[in-house]
Amino acid sequence: MLLVIAGALTGFAVGLTGVGGGSLMTPLLLLIFGVAPTTAVGTDLWFAALTKIVASPMHHSAALIDWKVVRRLWLGSLPGSFITVLLLKLGILSLAPAYLQIGLAAAVALTSVGLMFQRRLHNLGKKLRLHEAERFLTFQPGLTVLAGLFLGIMVTVTSVGAGALGTVFLTYLYPSRLTPARLVATDIVHAIPLAIFAGIGHLLIGNVDFALLGSLLLGSIPSVWAGVKLSMRLSHTRLRLALAIILAFVALRLFWNSL
Question: Structural domain boundaries of the chain?
């Protein structure tokens, strides 16, 4: 029952803000339910992918997805994920539990900082867009691909980043083009194939617990719909600040547990 509740709360956060698939669920699995780090990452990737698949038709029907931005992100994130999965499969890159937990803590901390400074990054991006428009637009596609590459690697290793850091990058890179609702929708759709891609890699390695996944989805699938509906009506600024504070505490707890 507690797993279903955890899934519901995380699913609602994902639908509402686009954040939480990895940055909330993976720490919950580690800290509350005692799941092994590698299993938590592998299972959470499928949890995030399937939860966001449920949310995406609502965003698509509202014409909120910016497919041009999504394709640019995929150009970086999917190859980045593939290379990372290959390195894991060949044993060149190791997910030792101790190091993985430190990596998760760092990823969640980075996510929290990114959310806290998202407004400032948006203002900086807007300033550059207005005063150095030609230069900004020249570098925008390449920087989007690089952002995708970073996300692909980070999500494959930790399951964290596709939602929170993705929105932070897009806030800076597309300050005028993406409204808050379009930002959430675009980021969610980008994260789906990335999570599936990385999830397949973890599945082949044996890091997915299907019983655990089923319990989490029982909670998340109904609640993500409610989150999406509210996301189209509410201001995201205070929600993201509250989430950033929560994630800061989660990161500290993860660091403490890794000592």
Answer: 2-258
